[in-house]
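ARCHIVE CARD
Drawer: 12
Card no.: 0347
Subject: one protein chain, sequence and derived structure
Cross-reference: see card 0346
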Amino acid sequence: MLVDAGLVTSHIEDRTTPGRPGRLYEAVAGALAASDSTGYRLLAEMLASHLAGTSTDVTQDAITAGRAWGTYLVERPPPFTTTPIGRARAEVIGLLDRLGFQPELSGDGTRIMCVAARSSTSHGDTPTSCARCTSAFLQGALATLGAPLQARELEPFVQPSQCVAHITATTPAHAG
């Protein structure tokens, strides 16, 4: 499904040892940013169905995946620097926007409202797992930025297609 959606490429590995060669997958650079606003829904559905069928701890696996991708997708600052709070918020909003979540930052900067999609099929604890994955995604991004901010909580489906992430300062820093 990822290959068909244009998000990854696939090829057979080159082997010099006996055994059946494996199929390798590689993300297509910029594919998520270029995808339409329903791209994240497809990815969420694929992740939920895969985890439901293969994971012994769906929620923990979703958290691990979210944190890893949040860390990977945000631009890493130079070593020994702290990203000012205002810039970190802007970076996270920009990232969520590129991924099609249509984020809106509250006036006081403590909440991010995002588009959320319910899974079209039932995969156990999907809403909770998706919310924890998204929260971990934000935590990974903010930690990588070195910002004195943390995603404390994500409320899934506060409206039929909206989630709210609560962002708080971890130290008394200026709004920079």
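Annotation on reverse: Helices lie at 31-34, 39-54, 58-73, 85-98, 126-145. The longest helix spans residues 126-145.
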